[in-house]
Design goal:
alpha/beta, globular, disordered N terminus
Length: 244
């Protein structure tokens, strides 16, 4: 392998022997590292919804809440859709974790997020410096950064439940989309909601607008018999889980 000198339109003198081979191998390795480090993350943020496949709706027999929890891990974080006429609300539950990138997002999540007209988040309090309104490096922080790159309007609501501390077990269950495991872990941590929260009325308001809203809240807000998904179903809404 020879590296062309494009400035002077010449090539460096040929190398011979073992040293030449080692240098060539080093150049190739360095180039590959650059591709891995720079191209892949850039590619993630270049994804657009129209380039992605249609997610699959989870089909439940009997009670959908029970069936979804019993289905086992789906291989990626959980996602639900609520529709009313032309209005669509995507429900996404996040957990505190030190996420460095969006490798946990699959085409289903890219499609739902990138196709939304607006994004709603929960905050942990007042907005600190540098726009990090969550105070950690969780999924919501990374999604907020993506929303900014895509020019999406963002609305931040104050949390209505106690903040969940970072938990390695919980993070692993969340990444694998293990609803039953998440329910058990959140119950052990005492974080499942026991009374109706304010989110059902917020979702009702979003469903009155002819647009698509992506809602990211603590996973604890969505799950369990008193979670947002179950509450919306009891109120007569069709809530479908979308699996990879």
């Amino acid at each position: 392998m020879h590296v062309a000198n494009f400035i002077e339109n010449t090539a460096p003198p040929p190398r011979t022997g073992q040293l030449s081979g080692l240098l060539d191998a080093g150049i190739i390795a360095a180039a590959a590292a650059c591709i891995v480090v720079t191209v892949i993350p850039a590619g993630m943020f270049a994804h657009r919804a129209h380039e992605l496949s249609t997610p699959a709706v989870f089909t439940a027999t009997g009670d959908p809440d029970t069936a979804e929890a019993a289905a086992g891990p789906v291989g990626a974080p959980l996602l639900w859709r609520v529709q009313d006429g032309k209005a669509t609300v995507w429900l996404f539950g996040s957990v505190p974790a030190r996420h460095r990138d969006l490798t946990w997002m699959d085409s289903r999540l890219f499609q739902a997020f990138d196709g939304a007209d607006a994004v709603w988040f929960e905050t942990t309090g007042a907005m600190p410096a540098e726009g990090n309104i969550w105070g950690d490096r969780g999924a919501s922080v990374l999604l907020n950064q993506r929303a900014g790159r895509l020019g999406k309007p963002v609305t931040a609501f104050g949390k209505t439940a106690a903040k969940i501390d970072e938990d390695v077990v919980l993070s692993g269950l969340w990444r694998s989309g293990d609803e039953r495991g998440l329910l058990a872990r959140l119950n052990t941590l005492g974080r499942l909601p026991s009374v109706p929260g304010v989110w059902p009325s917020r979702i009702e308001g979003a469903l009155k607008e002819d647009k698509t809203t992506f809602v990211a809240v603590d996973a604890a807000q969505l799950l369990g018999p008193d979670g947002l998904v179950a509450q919306l179903r009891r109120d007569g809404h069709k809530v479908e889980r979308f699996d990879p």
